[in-house]
Amino acid sequence: MRGRRSAALLVAVTLAGCGVREASTPAYVDPAAVPYGLLGSAAPTSTVTGTGELLGGGPAVYFVRDGRLEPTPAPPRSGTGLDQLDQLLDALAAGPPAAQQRRSIGTALPPGVSLRVVGVRAGVATVELAGDPTGSDVDQAPLAVAQIVFTVTSLRGAESVLLTRDGDRLSAPLPDGSLVDRELTAADYATVGG
Question: What are the sequence ranges of the domains in the chain?
């Protein structure tokens, strides 16, 4: 149990804190360039409404505004498979673009954290947390985990997320303060969802 609490504390400290860095703006992605049927039979379009709702079901990067997730259309992706998922997580780790920052959109992910997709199997995307994050606001950890889960599962083919560090499974904080040692879904974070 002590190891599980240590791992949970590690994920909370790793994901705690605030920080925003400028990133590039979203752009159109040719549906033919998206691998292994992530878009299904038709290419959805992504539009963010004034209420923060992402229309069209396309991939999105989830940032934070007023303690809730705020979807942003995904930046252009290149390559295939895991490369595209990694690019989506790179955009998440970089923080919202300047235009969104001016709209009070930020992130709960701390500066210095890096995210990498290790693999996707049977709809479960394994995301490795690394880096040397700064910040210690543990209350932000569930929101940071929610950002990762919503961003990854916005892509068709990824239904849940397993968080790891150095290859070991991490317990993750839920919005109610409990810790779980299993794959995470967007439903786990519905109370803070966009």
Answer: 2-192
